[in-house]
Amino acid sequence: MNNNGYLSTLNDPQREAVLYGNGPLMIIAGAGSGKTRVLTYRIAHLIENGVDPFRILSLTFTNKASGEMRHRIENAVGTEARNIWMGTFHSVFAKILRIEARYLGYTSDFSIYDTDDSKSLLRSIIKEYNLDDKVYKANVVFNRISGAKNRLVSADDYMNNAIIQADDEAAKMKEIGRLYKTYVTRCFQANAMDFDDLLYNTNILFRDFPDVLYKYQHKFQHVMVDEFQDTNVSQYLITRKLSAVHRNIVVVGDDAQSIYAFRGANIENILNFEKDFPDVQTIKLEQNYRSTSTIVNAANSVIARNKTQLKKETFTVNEEGSLIDVIKAGSDNEEGRLVATAIFEEKMQKSLRNENFAILYRTNAQSRSFEEALRKLGIKYRIIGGQSFYQRKEIKDLLAYLRFTVNQRDEEAFKRIINLPKRGIGDTTVAKITVTAAENNVAIWDVVANIASFASGRTIAPIEQFGTLIKSFKLLVEDGKDAYEIAAHIAKVSGILRELYEDKTVEGLSRYENVQELLNGIKEFVDSDANEDKTLSAFLQSVSLLTNADEPDENEDNDRVTMMTIHSAKGLEFRNVFIVGLEEDLFPSQMMLESRQDLEEERRLFYVAITRAEKKLSFSYAESRYQWGRLKMCEPSRFLLEVDPRFLNVSKMIQGATERENSVAGGTSFARNLIARKPAEPKTNVAVAAAYTPSADFTPSDTSDLKEGDRVEHMKFGLGNVTKMDVNGTDRKATVKFDIVGEKTLLLSFAKLHIVK
Prior knowledge:
By secondary structure, the chain is an alpha/beta fold.
C-alpha cells in the first residue's frame, strides 16, 4: 500500500490516529466517523513499518466486523494479514484456552455450550434437586450465574457473599448458589465451557498461571479493542493485563453508543480509561460521513441531555436533507399501515429498493403489525433476530452428533442424540445411565461404551449399537478426515438425513434442506484458504462462536425491508430508517425508568437508532396498543420532546384528529405543543424547550386514593394540581392542571404520578 495514497483519504484526526506511535491511545469515534477505516489503516501501517502480524491482537464484537477488517487489511498488505490475531473476544480467548486447556484441567477439544445447552443442563439440575421450576426458572438462574461470572464472582464467592445471599433470599431463590456450584461442576465433568466461561476462565488462567500470562504479554506487542464502550469488567481486565508490558493499547469507542448494560457492559471502562492509563493520548473523530446534517444535529440535541458522557461535537458537511417525519397513529395496527404506506410511497417517488429501508423497534414483539402491513402491500421484508439458523432443531441435532464425536464427555450432546433417530432408549434409561456414571465416578461415555459391565436387560442392545456407532465416527477423526467428510458420513449413517428425507411434508422438506445447507457450509469451511485447520473440532469452534449478526442470509433475494430491534442494528446503516413505537413505557422501556443511569442508557439507545439513518429518518408512535390482551392508551415518548423541534416535520401528526384523541394525554395537543415550539424562522438560533427534569427522589405513588386538589408530579409534565377525577369501572382518569404545560387528562392505570406531600 502506498502511504501517501491512503493517508490522503483521511481527515486530520483520522490520520493522527493511524500514525500514532507507541503508548496508550483512546479514539472517541462518533457515529459514522470512519472508525473501521482508521483501525484498518492503523494495523496496515504497523505491518508496513515492520511490526510482525503475529504480534498484533485486534478484538471486535462480531465475526462479521473482524472478517471485514481482515479483508480490507489483506487488500492493503497481502496475505500477511491472515497472521494477525483478530476476532471476537470469545473466539480469540477460546483459541488461547484450547492451547492452554491443560492448565485448567480441560482437554483442547472441550465443547462450547450455547445458551440452550446451559439452560437444558440447569433444568436437569433443578429437577434433580426437586426444586420448583416455576420459582427456579432456568432462564432466571442462568442469567444470575452469567452475571456473576461476568463480574468474576466464582460459585464459592457467590455462596459466601452475604449481600448476594440476602438478594437471593429476598427473591425466594436461596438455592441459586448451590445450583451455580453444581452447574460449574457438571460443565467441567462434561469437558465443556459456556460462553461466559471463555472470558471467566481466561481471567483465571492469567491470574493463576503467571508464566502463561507472561507468554501472551510478550507475544502481543500491540492490542486494539473495537467498540470499547461495550466491554464488561472481565473483558477489560484481560485486555489491560495483556497490554501491561508493551502498553501499546488502542481502544476505540463512543460512550454515546453504550447500550449493552443488560449484558454486563460497563460504560465506566471508557469513562475511566484515563485513570488506568494516565499517559493516554485521546483523539476524537467527530466528523460524521454517514448522515445528513438534519439527522446529525437531531441526534446531538438528544444526547446532549445525558449528564454522564465524554464531550464531543459531532458535525457533518453533508447536505441538510429533509426534516424528520413524525407519524401519529391511533393504534399499533394503524402505525403498521402508515409506516408501510410511507415506505411504498417513498419507493415509488424516488425509485428506491426495499433494501434501502429499515424499521427499528425496541422489542421483537412489535414486529407483527408491520409484517402484516408490509405483506398487504406486497413489500418483501426480513426480520433480523428471529430464530437463528443454528438454533433450529435439525441443525442442533446434527451438530450434537458432531460434538459428541469430538468430545464424549459432552453430557448435553449425549442427551440430545442417544435416542435420535428413535432407538427405544427412553428418558428413564438415560437417567439410569447418568446415575450409574455418578455412582461409579466415571464419565457417561464410559458407561455407554461398556454397558454390559453396568447393566442387563433389553436396553443393552440399542445402547451397544449407539456406542458402536460413535466409536466408528471417532475412527474417522483419528484417521485425520476433514470436517466435511466426517459430517457427511455422520449425517448419512446416523439416520438423520434418511428420517428427514422420508418426511414429505413442507416442514420436513425444509428441515432436510436446512441440513443440506449446513453440510454445504461445512464444505465451504473446508475449501476456504483462510482456514488452515480443517478438522471437525475447528469447525465446531467456528460455529459455536457465531453471533446473530454473522448468520447466513437464507434469502437469495436481498431486496427486502429490514426489521430489527435497535440493539441488533448497532453498527449498521440504512438510507431510510423508521424508529417506531415511540411511547412512554415502551421506549423508554418501563424497565428503564428506575434511575437516571438506566434512563441515560435508553437515551443512548435512541441516539444509536437515529444515527443508523443516512438520508431520511421518520419517527412513529401509537396512541393505543394491545398489551397482555388489554387495550392500553399510550403517551408519546419523552424522547420526541427532546429532539430539537427545528428538525421535525409534524404535519402527519395532526391529520384526522378526533375528539377521542383530544381527550387522552398525548393526543393532538402533543402535536400542537411541538408546532408551538417550532421557531418561525428556522435559521434563527432558538433555544430548545427543555424537557422537565423530575425530582431526584421521584418515585411513582399509589394513586388508588388520589382525589381532587392533590398536588402531583409527573416525570415529563412536571408539577400540577388534580382538578377532576373520572372513574368508570377499572379505568380511572385524572384531569391535572400542570404549571407549565396546562391541563392533561391521564389514565391512572399507566400514568406515573408522585403525590407531593
